[in-house]
Amino acid sequence: MFTILATLKVQKGKEEEAEKIMEELASQVAAKEPATLTYLFHRLQNDPNIIIVFEVYQDEAAFEAHRRGEILRQAGTKLASVLEPGGVEIKVLERFAGFQRP
Amino acid sequence: MFTILATLKVQKGKEEEAEKIMEELASQVAAKEPATLTYLFHRLQNDPNIIIVFEVYQDEAAFEAHRRGEILRQAGTKLASVLEPGGVEIKVLERFAGFQRP
């Protein structure tokens, strides 16, 4: 279990385009990365230019495989034109309690 | 579906006590709030005084019931002595893409 919280800043006016790229990314990952267990994209209710991605991987190796993989590389190229420069922040989270109903 | 990202700042030296209170809170919610679907507690890998809670409720009414309920009230009283003053930030997230494997 390896959890990531990613925050992405989208350029003003590029919200719709950005979300389309992320939808496509999510469906590719769903289809082709079984060790990516949870991959949820949200916009902040109070600021739709801020995207929060909650990601759970089977283990750190699965995250590394995702991070270095072809799917994310291709999406990253597209995202580069809609995100703010330096607009990606990645935090590693250590789960210590809680549950997720099936 | 109603998603919350909560960030809590724990006082230095109170990390262990805080995590115990949160573990107890999570198991109470698991047992008694079926409309709280996901309730995951994490510390930041780079700063164990920062707690990130990822919460998914069946709907906004379920979140309000949780927020105003007895379980959170009792935990909140205990947490008040281990969190920084004003150390709770709540963000509402709008999911637009992604998946969660069962």
How would you describe the overall organization of this protein?
The structure is a homodimer of 102-residue chains. The first copy, chain A, has 102 residues and is α+β, with helices and mostly antiparallel strands. The first copy, chain A, has one domain (8-49, 58-87): Alpha-Beta Plaits. Chain A is built from 3 helices and 4 strands. The first copy, chain A, has helices at residues 15-32, 60-68, 70-79; strands at 2-10, 36-44, 47-57, 83-100. Chain A has a 4-stranded antiparallel sheet with strand order 2-3-1-4. In chain A, a hairpin with a 2-residue loop joins strand 2 and strand 3. Chain A is globular. The model of chain A has no long low-confidence stretch (mean pLDDT 97).
Element order of chain A: H for helix, E for strand: EHEEHHE
Class by SSE composition of chain A: alpha+beta
Distance between the termini of chain A: 16 Å
Mean pLDDT of chain A: 97
Kindly provide the name of the CATH class of chain A.
Alpha Beta
Structural domain tally of chain A: 1
Key features of this structure:
homodimer; 102 residues; 46% strand; alpha+beta; 4-stranded antiparallel β-sheet; Alpha-Beta Plaits
Secondary structure: elements and pairs:
2 copies of one chain form a homodimer.
Chain A: E1 2-10, H1 15-32, E2 36-44, E3 47-57, H2 60-68, H3 70-79, E4 83-100
Antiparallel strand pairs in A: 1-3, 1-4, 2-3
